[in-house]
Design goal:
Length: about 1200
């Protein structure tokens, strides 16, 4: 494995004409492709075998040399080298152009690089390049009427030529531009620009900075500006632009061949015209056409009308091949189709163990084919591989026995699309099943978000021993019990399992058969139950012992609860064992919430294997007893409360009261509307309470909702109470409620009113899925290079964690914010002065509880926002790994985890903008997914809040024309803020406000906050606001995920003054680079640069990343590559995407560089199965953490 790093870095630059000729294996001179009779490539054509290599392995064109023995021979007859045909995928050719042409990327991109170097406008350049104007390339010093780079029309040129003759030279087309580019002295230009920069301001300064950036880039990258003009064009290998024969004898060809053909045709025609000395005007037209055809080849449609093929379809140029979802980057480099995989429909497998999945026999045979064949030969069922293959294909009976043995201990990966987080791919041990459907364990459905209504899943087979070890040690479903977003169990039982547990543990008031009986042991009680003397709900006493010698004690509970406690660990801390050593751990009704807590405690105290066992037990008991409980729904279970008519009548009267007040003009229509909505909401609430009170605790519907198995209070309300208020298509609440419920049935009008909501719901879901997916993609891109790179960075930064509140409502408790983090300083109990947590130690569950019990309200914690690691972040700033509850290991890809944790619940967030029916402008607060996007993109929000820029006391002034808030600081300085009409003022006269506080309701523009409160203020605001959106929707996400993203948004510094460093004023540099350059300057006693932290939205931050491969594969591919080529950028492959693109192991997890000495020792007998992990220096335990 140590050999896996093929590259340390990858560099991109402009190709010089010499370089292009060096790559080439020969010049393509003819536009022909293949001979339509012989179907052989034409000589010197686009598919020529002499240039690109043979079409058949080890065979030259004329057939003189065949077979491997002539390897490397060049046929003297046809000139083709005898080699493998796959060289046609790598050998390039070239076209020598009769006239130079410009490269459209550098001339047409924004900003135009050619224009910046020459200090000419793109419009002027276009005139020159497309032969509409002359440009002066040389002029003698004694001529004053003409200056260099002057544009001349045909008439002006002729007149000047007559007047001055050879004293000046002018030209047109790419040739003239090339001469101008050659004349530029970059060093001199750079020096002059730096001097100009000193005294300039405004637009002029921006233009100079831009020019300086490009010129410096050329100097540093050693690219020559004239290389932006092409004399030679490379021809890509033929197998990458193939031509295939279709059934009807017709050919389908790649668009590139058409584009190349146009270039070659025009080039050949131009060469001929030049040879015969054609008139200038004809030659010029031909040169312009050549320029246009090269433009179309490189980037069709960038300038003018795109070249179209049959059916008016624009041809796909080289640029199109790279761009977008179907381009080279995203389709072939970042995602590939793999062998040894299959897909099928999933069905439920309740009989499976937690780590198993059912694999259809035929699919398993196909997947494990090579393994089965090897084993058949080994056991001498077959003599050679060929006959073994035949046996497998004919499905001989022996094959099945071998397959059974082969799949033992060979885990498979199951994946369900869309894979929104890493739990969308998990490993299982396969169990062969009949039929064609994959069987899935019911408890992993939540993680996959799978259901059995026709979902499909894909199976992948890890082949190498290392891959199997990783699948087993890291990806097995038993290792994925906790969700990444909040560290809570994701495998909580649902539906029938919850129902069964609830039914078992419920207390019934009525007398049951066998109440009051006593038993000497659990087995005796079960015997009585099986013999029919007891009911599951009978209240009995059973003697419980701590050990064999213990006389024990009679404990009273119900039969069901005794059964449940058999497989619940009795030391989870629900009961104080010092006071009550014999009592049942769980002696109450179990609902879904409590089950979640039990699983969490079991995991913390007993680890994942015991938890998996417990989950299987709960699953089996749940299914079994929900069957026995036989809960069903009938019309009779839906009880409408008797108080319904009077509640409605009371509400109607109230509404009438406000209607009258409105008609008399005492209140506005807006106020009336708000009152009506409130009255009906209150009435609905009252009725809901009445409905819940009417239910008998053993009512089937009540059981379902109360246990958390299915349905909610809201749904019961609609069944037995009233449907309540509905929203209109615009989102405004309709003030007439639906007073019927589903049991009574709706009237036609009520039915019609319901349809708006349903339609909106479906449309919303469709939009939300796409938006959420795009948000996840941007988050992954911005955070993919954040990896845990070291243990402790020793930072002096911290964050004061306190409760997040929104008015009086708590958004996030303090415990959620500090648990699993490292404390920045020693934390003492304020009363007893005992040390709770030392500095730089992790705050565990118990310590967090103690801190809160002591009444401490602010805790200084380490966070990734203050991490000083050069690349990635350190383990202490990150804190606990939520998936394992342990310290985070080095190499953990926390950036991707953060992106997935924020993106995955994104689909659950609502899309709507809440309308508080009324003054639309002020009160429309964006919420849900659009708000999250607005925050991460650092956009100016809708409903902008005014913030104060100074600390001070508030005074309000109102006059006819405007409302003002004036803030006066202690030193007498005051600032006034105009408040627009309709905005609600948040502060009162005499309030004290701090800089950055909101004066009106609404959302703050993060850029303003950065200016007023600095990076810390904006970090806290962003984390809090994102949390607010998710928490209000009932989604818990840990702060650290949001912090990782916010850290990336603030990772760049804008240089204000470059001092004596080589940074450019106005350029964006990474924080690390900025401080490094300043360190260097400081050491040499030079002036340091100054800069300000900038906040970039996630899209901008992704594109501003150090790695050009990562940025190019994200968005705006051509722009990123143009920029990178001119700057001669070097990609040090630190992120995940870059390494995937060039086909290396990613520098995370087991691919992390420090793990290169971890290797697998294959054992002789069963190398595939007996996996032992060895560590050279330390014991095996290390592997588990680092992997």
């Amino acid at each position: 494995m140590s050999d896996h790093k093929l590259f340390n870095s990858i560099k991109i630059g402009l190709a010089s004409p010499e370089k292009i000729r060096e790559w080439s294996y020969g010049e393509v001179k003819k536009p022909e492709t293949i001979n339509y009779r012989t179907l052989k490539p034409e000589k010197e054509g686009l598919f020529c075998e002499k240039i690109f290599g043979p079409t058949k392995d080890w065979e030259c064109n004329c057939g003189k040399y065949k077979r491997v023995r002539y390897k490397g021979v060049v046929c003297e007859k046809c000139g083709v080298e005898v080699t493998k045909a796959k060289v046609r995928r790598e050998r390039m050719g070239h076209i020598e152009l009769a006239a130079p042409v410009s490269h459209i990327w550098y001339f047409k991109g924004i900003p135009s690089r050619m224009g910046l170097v020459l200090d000419m406008s793109p419009r002027a350049l276009e005139k020159i390049l497309y032969f509409a104007a002359y440009v002066v390339t040389r002029v003698d010093s004694d001529v004053n009427a003409i200056y260099p780079k002057q544009l001349l029309t045909e008439m002006e040129y002729r007149e000047l030529k007559r007047e001055y003759g050879d004293k000046f030279k002018a030209g047109m087309g790419a040739q003239a531009v090339k001469e101008l580019l050659k004349q530029i002295d970059l060093e001199k230009e750079s020096k002059a620009l730096k001097e100009d920069l000193e005294g300039s301001t405004g637009q002029k300064r921006i233009r100079i900075t831009r020019r300086l950036e490009v010129i410096e880039a050329f100097i540093q990258s050693k690219n020559k500006p004239e290389w932006m003009i092409l004399d030679v064009i490379p021809v890509i290998p033929p197998d990458i632009r193939p031509m295939v024969q279709l059934d009807g004898g017709r050919f389908a060809t790649s668009d590139l061949n058409d584009l190349y053909r146009r270039v070659i045709n025009r080039n050949n025609r131009l060469r001929k015209l030049l040879d015969i000395g054609a008139p200038d005007i004809i030659v010029r037209n031909e040169k312009r056409m050549l320029q246009e055809s090269v433009d179309a080849l490189i980037d069709n449609g960038r300038r003018g009308r795109p070249v179209t093929g049959p059916g008016n379809r624009p041809l796909k140029s080289l640029s199109e091949m790279l761009k977008g979802k179907q381009g080279r980057f995203r389709q072939n480099l970042l995602g590939k189709r793999v062998d040894y995989s299959g897909r099928s429909v999933i069905v439920v497998g309740p009989e499976l163990k937690f780590y198993q999945c059912g694999l259809p026999k035929n699919m398993a045979l196909e997947l494990f084919k090579p393994f089965v064949m090897r084993e058949l030969v080994k056991r001498e069922y077959a003599h050679n591989i060929k006959s073994a293959k035949r046996m497998v294909e004919r499905i001989r009976p022996e094959v099945w026995d071998v397959l059974e043995d082969v799949i033992q201990d060979h885990p498979v990966l199951l994946n369900r699309a869309p894979t929104l987080h890493r739990l969308g791919i998990q490993a299982f041990e396969p169990v062969l099943v009949e039929g064609k459907a994959i069987k899935l364990h019911p408890l992993v459905c939540t993680a996959y978000n799978a259901d059995f209504d026709g979902d499909q899943m894909a199976v992948h087979l890890p082949l190498s021993t290392e891959a199997q070890a990783e699948a087993r040690l890291l990806m097995l479903s038993t290792n994925n019990i906790l969700a990444l977003k909040d560290g809570k169990p994701i495998t909580t039982p649902s539906q029938d399992m919850v129902l069964g547990s609830y039914y078992l543990s419920v207390l019934v008031d009525e007398k049951q058969k066998g109440d009051g009986m006593r038993f000497s042991s659990y087995d005796e009680m079960m015997h009585a139950l099986e013999s029919g003397f007891l009911h599951l709900h009978s209240k009995v006493s059973v003697r419980r012992k701590l050990n064999e010698q213990d006389p024990g004690k009679l404990v009273k509970s119900t039969v069901g609860r005794f059964i449940l406690n058999q497989f619940i660990h009795q030391d989870l801390g629900f009961v104080d064992r010092e006071k009550d050593p014999y009592g049942l751990e769980i002696d109450r009704t179990i609902d879904k919430k409590l089950l979640g807590k039990i699983i969490e405690k079991t995991y913390k105290l007993h680890g994942n294997l015991k938890t998996a066992q417990f989950l299987d037990d709960i699953k089996n008991a749940g299914y079994h007893y929900s069957t026995i409980g036989a809960v069903s729904i009938s019309m009779g279970d839906v009880v409408v409360p008797d108080s319904k008519p009077e509640i409605l009548e009371k509400a109607d009267k109230e509404v009438d009261k406000y209607e009258k007040a409105f008609r008399r003009g005492l209140i506005s229509d807006e106020e009336r509307y708000e009152h009506v909505i409130k009255i009906w909401n209150d009435a609905t609430e009252e009725l809901t309470d009445a409905v819940m009170d009417t239910f008998d605790p053993m009512n089937n519907i009540y059981i379902m909702a109360d246990s958390g198995a299915r349905g909610s209070k809201n749904q019961i309300r609609q069944l037995a109470g009233m449907r309540g208020l509905m929203a209109s298509p615009s989102g405004r609440t309709i003030e007439v409620p639906i007073t019927s419920n589903f049991r009574e049935g709706l009237s036609v009008l009520e039915f019609y009113m319901s349809t708006h909501g349903s339609r909106k719901g479906l449309a919303d879901t469709a939009l939300r899925t796409a938006d959420s997916g795009y948000l996840t993609r941007r988050l992954v891109d911005v955070a993919q290079q954040v990896i845990i790179t070291e243990e402790d960075c020793g930072t002096d930064q911290y964050v004061e964690a306190k409760v997040f509140t929104d008015g009086n409502e708590v958004i996030e408790e303090l415990k959620d914010r500090i648990e699993g983090r490292y404390s920045f300083e020693d934390i003492y109990d304020p009363k007893t002065k005992d040390l709770i947590v030392g500095a730089n130690e992790m705050i565990h569950d118990e310590e967090a509880d103690r801190i809160i019990a002591c009444g401490i309200e602010k805790v200084k914690i380490r966070t990734v926002l203050g991490c000083k690691s050069k690349h990635g972040v350190c383990a202490h700033c990150y804190g606990r790994n939520l998936a394992t509850n342990d310290e985070v290991g080095i190499g953990e890809a926390v950036g991707v985890i953060a992106a997935q944790s924020i993106g995955e619940p994104g689909t659950q967030l609502t899309m709507r903008t809440f309308h508080t029916g009324g003054v639309a402008a002020a009160a429309d607060i964006t919420q849900g997914l659009p708000r999250v996007e607005e925050l991460f993109e650092a956009r100016k929000p809708k409903g902008l809040a005014v913030i104060t820029e100074i600390d001070g006391t508030v005074s309000l002034s109102k006059n006819d024309r405007k409302r003002e808030v004036i803030v006066t600081s202690e030193n007498g300085e005051s600032q006034s803020y105009n408040i627009v009409y309709g905005a609600r003022i948040k502060v009162k006269e005499g309030d004290y406000v701090e800089a950055g506080d909101e004066l009106t309701q609404g959302s703050v523009y993060p850029q303003d906050l950065l200016r007023v409160k600095g990076p810390k203020g904006v970090q806290e605001y962003l984390v809090k606001e994102v949390q607010r959106v998710y928490r209000l929707q009932g989604v818990d996400i840990n702060d650290k995920h949001i912090e990782v993203i916010v850290r990336q948004m603030l990772g760049k510094i804008k240089v204000v003054d470059c001092g004596d460093t080589d940074l450019l004023p106005g350029s964006l540099v990474s924080t690390v680079d900025f401080y490094e350059k300043n360190e260097e300057a400081k050491k040499e006693g030079l002036e340091e640069a100054t800069g300000e932290v900038t906040l970039l939205g996630i899209t901008k931050a992704s594109l501003a990343t150090e790695s050009f491969l990562s940025a190019a594969s994200f968005q705006e591919t051509t722009r990123v590559l143009t920029d990178a080529a001119i700057k001669g950028k070097q990609d040090y492959l630190r992120g995940l995407k870059e390494n995937i693109i060039i086909g290396q192991l990613i520098p995370a997890g087991t691919g992390v560089r420090s793990n290169e000495h971890v290797y697998l020792k294959e054992q002789d007998q069963r190398s595939q199965e007996n996996i032992s992990l060895l560590e050279e220096e330390e014991e095996t335990e290390v592997v588990d953490k680092t992997i």
